[in-house]
Structure formats: C-alpha cells, structure tokens
Amino acid sequence: MNTVIPKIRMGFVGGGEGSFIAQAHHQAAGLDGRFELVCGAFSRDAQNNLRTGNRLGLPQSRCYGTWQLMLETERALPAEERMELLVIVTPNHLHAPVASEALAAGFHVFSEKPAALSLAELQELKARLNSSTGLYGLAHTYLGYPMVWQARDMVRNGVIGNVRKVLVEYPQGWLSQDVARQGNRQAEWRGQPALSGAGGCIADIGTHAFSLAEFVADQAITHLCANLGVHVEGRQLDDDAAMLFKMAQGASGVLIASQVCAGEENPLSIRVYGDKGGLEWRQEQPASLIHRSLDQPMRILRSGTGQSWLCEAATQRMRLPAGHPEGYLEAMANLYGDFATAIRAGGVNHAAPGVPGIEVGLRGMAFIEAAIASHHSDAKWTPLECSV
C-alpha cells in the first residue's frame, strides 16, 4: 500500500507585485511538485499584500500584514496546518533577521542571497541555526544546473588534470543608466546601503560568479586583488568589479562582475583550465559543456535524460530528454527538490545535501568584504579569510 507523502507547506516573506525573484521561486517550487504555498507576508502595503495573496489563491486570513505576525500566528496553528518552510525574497537587509526568527520559531528557511548584510551578522545567524532544529538553504540558483555539476565532477576526476586557471565573468547591462531615478524599484533598493549592504554589484551578482568558481574548480579562493567602480553619477554602491584571485591548490584566476555592460543580458560564464585540458560553461546556453583537450578534438557534452556518459549528480538533476531546453526555473527547482528530500528525511546538520547552505553564505559574505577591503587597500593581495 502506497503512503501519500504530504506536500511541504511553505510561506513567503516578500514577493509582492513587481517581484521577479519571488515569482521565480513560486514557479520553481511548483515545478518540483512537492510544495504548497499556504501563507505569506508579501508587502508592507496592505492592498498589495492582499492582491498578491489573492492572485496566489490564498485566503485573506493567511495574508499577514507583517512577517512577525505570520511567524507568531503560524507557529500557533496545529502541526498539520502550519507552515513548515519559510522562503525569504525580500531586500537584503531582512534576510538574516527574518531567517533568525524563523529558525527560532521552528521553521526551515530558504533565503535569497546574499545571506546577510555583513559577515558578523551572518555569523550570528549561524549560531542561531546551530541551536535550532531547522534546515537552511541559500538560493544560489546557478549551482542547480546539471552541467555545472558535470563540470565539477570532471574536475574532481582529473579529466582536465591539475587546475591552473579559472576565468569567471558575469556582465549585465540593466544598470547602465540611472533606472532607479526612473522608477525601477529593484534598482532603487539595490542602490541603498541600508537595504542592500556595503556591496552593490559585487554582492548582487559577484557572489554568484564567486560561488560558481569555487564550486566548479572544487577549491577555495584564498586571496584577491579587486577594483570596484561606480559609473553612474550619484550611485552609492559599486556597479562594476574586476579582480585577480588565487586559489587554495595553486590555481590563479580572474573574476569580472558588472551591471553596466550595455546590451548584455545574463551571460554568466566560467572557463576552467588544467594541465590536460579545459572546460567552459555558459548560463545562456546551459545545456552545453565544452571540453577541450590537449590531444583530442574539442567536444560538446549536452544535457538530457538518458545520456549515459554524464555523471550521476548531473543526470539526477535533468528532467527532459536531450534537445528539450531546461533553464533557470529548472535549476532553481533542483534546489527546491533537494531541499524537499532533506526536509522529509528529517534533515542532517541543518543543511540539505545539494543545496548551498550557511557555509556558502559565509564564504560569499567574506568575499564581499574582502573585495571591498582590497579596493580600498594599497596592498597587492587581500586574504579572503572565512572560518566555516
């Protein structure tokens, strides 16, 4: 007799009208199929909050005016009704405070990145996590792509030899003009240090490039030499970054992150070179992984179910046969899927295997602070120190 496993009841903090990332989270969770949205505190604007909840099919009674009220009320509900997982899709300044209170209230947390406004704030959250029974995940969505896992597997198995060089870049063009003054709400809050933190571009997309480099190369960045820039007059936070870096096992690298590359969309990419060959992956063509070898023609590995030459970690994250495009939502759905498996299995050490957790968040915050320190320093190299 088959036992029906109930869907995981989730609630949102943030995600009112106009939020791209909240919509992506809702769609990705639905794509995985093991989640049910049961409540939300979507906006401080009461009408926006109710309209959003109505659009998502929620009763008015579970559209809360504040996230504090939501945690208090949901915690008091019967166990079979209350929210189990809180998804945080707010501006950055609320990520750590909301996560901390949610964990204390007994809920699991899946948060947008960066995980906090500072490394010190995130270390406090880690202490709260360690004293809780909850799981914590961070939405580094690009680490959910199957061919990113394939690339790391090939690095780990020595296919390209000892890693020597890592080139990672994330150019965007959407902040090439002062769109915050033109009414773009996403640009507006991202330009305010009190809401976004000390980093602008370096925190928003630089952390994605950083985590991708460490994940695929399978080693930590230990030192960097960074230059941050502001190209739009009046902007308070960086909109452009470039740096050299060193890695723990001897590789050197270059990281570029910019939101003023006019005309660019979202071409996050990485190239990793060893003494036997290289790998290249591009987010805008995520189904392809280029493998270059010293003594063989270049080959292109393609994602898709049934590809026996791909590693298990990659194939278990694929849903469709080759030639049927999977993209950003599927990558995020992979994170939700791994999170669901961990929740229903009871969880291990406050983390969900396959999902970036608090350690990735700590590394990311240390990266932001090291990049800013390097920019203001006359020293050639700034250490990236982070104890996780």
TrEMBL record:
Residues 150-280 form the GFO/IDH/MocA-like oxidoreductase domain. Pfam families: GFO_IDH_MocA (PF01408), GFO_IDH_MocA_C3 (PF22725). SUPFAM superfamilies: Glyceraldehyde-3-phosphate dehydrogenase-like, C-terminal domain (SSF55347), NAD(P)-binding Rossmann-fold domains (SSF51735). It comes from the Bacteria. Residues 8-133 form the Gfo/Idh/MocA-like oxidoreductase N-terminal domain. This is Gfo/Idh/MocA family oxidoreductase. It comes from Pseudomonas granadensis.
